[in-house]
Amino acid sequence: MTAPQDTTVKPLRLDGITKHFGGIVAIKRFDLEIEPGEIVALVGDNGAGKSTLVKIISGMYQPTDGEIWVNGERASFRDPSDARTRGVEVVYQDLALVDLQPVYMNLFLGRELRRKPFGTLDRKTMASRTQALVEELDVRIPSARATLSDLSGGQRQGIAIARATHWASSLVLMDEPTAALGVAETAKVEELILKLKARGAAVLIVSHNMEQVFRVADRVTVLRRGTQVGTKRTEETTHNELVAMITGLSS
Ligand SMILES: Nc1ncnc2c1ncn2[C@@H]1O[C@H](COP(=O)(O)OP(=O)(O)OP(=O)(O)O)[C@@H](O)[C@H]1O
Ligand SMILES: [Mg+2]
Questions:
Q1: I need a surface site. Which of 67, 178, 207, 235 has the fewest CB within 10 A?
Q2: Domain chopping of the chain, boundaries
Q3: CA angle 95-183-134, nearest 5°?
Q4: How far apart are the C-alpha atoms of 99 and 193, rounded to whole Å?
């Protein structure tokens, strides 16, 4: 008889992730598992290493040491498009979208649908799929054919999240997705994040906004100058405790 094994496959498991930049240790032995349908917030002061960790998971940087597992398989992504083919999507603060293109082209960026036999863009299908997706997610925009630059910041971030929702098979990383948004736009984006969770995606969200962390996250993990100082369930911690962990000063 073999011993029973833990067969639960985690969308993300990080084992001892370490990153050096020359002599700087940006991340030191970082561990984390995220369950399907779980939102984990990653918090810490400026320069703590949050974006570096997101870039490592998304294939932009290679870790100096440690292992990344996605859906139970060891992952070592060559670059972000390699990560995307494995169902890992990223939403950035600075909106990696193309201003002069219509919404539907942004939705299909790098994965455009083409018609046979000449490979011309299948704009009609891309636009209708985009329209269906934004309606399903209740992202309010004038039309899937609108030019991106005509949308507000909140609508644009809605498109970035809709794109991640559409393509991510299991894991979405977000680096300060609402940092550039106002209160109402932030609320709308948080609704979208909760819809992603309801669909069973695992979400890792970097945020400086403590109220947001408590509104959306199930757990929160704290980085201080590259060291992971702790992970808490949001139900079992407080604003003051997190601030103390972030700063290293007792509350
Ligand atoms: N490409 C790089 N080369 C050298 N050092 C880097 C590089 N990227 C990040 N660092 C360093 O790694 C550390 C962590 O930076 P990172 O951008 O991950 O911080 P952060 O937690 O995202 O901060 P912020 O809240 O300001 O966005 C910093 O000391 C930074 O200067
Ligand atoms: Mg950052």
A1: 235
A2: 12-247
A3: 50
A4: 23
3-state secondary structure 103-165: HHHHHCCCCCCEECCCCEECHHHHHHHHHHHHHHHCCCCCCCCCEHHHCCHHHHHHHHHHHHH
Strands 12-21, 24-34: parallel, antiparallel or unpaired by DSSP?
antiparallel
Cα-to-centroid distance, 49 and ligand 1 (Å): 5
Please list the rounded mean pLDDT of every run of 10 residues in the chain (251 residues). 65 97 95 97 96 95 96 91 88 76 91 91 95 87 92 85 83 89 85 91 95 97 97 97 92 56
| Confidence (pTM) | 0.90
Ligand 1 atom at shortest distance from the alpha carbon of 49: 18
CA distance 189 to 8: 30
Q: How far apart are CA 20 and CA 65, in angstroms?
A: 9
Q: Which residues lie with the beta carbon below 6 Å from any ligand 1 atom? A: 21, 24, 26, 44, 46-52
Residue 188: other Cβ atoms inside 10 A:
19
What is the C-alpha R_g of the chain?
19
Name, in order, each residue with C-beta under 8 angstroms of 97's C-beta and a sequence gap of 6 or more. 106, 109, 148, 156, 159, 160
Q: Can you read off the two tokens belonging to residue 61?
A: 């940087």
Residue nearest to atom 17 of ligand 1 (CA): 51
CATH code assigned to 12-247? 3.40.50.300
The tokens describing 161, both together, are 């999240």
Residues around the ion ligand 2 (C-beta < 5 A): 51
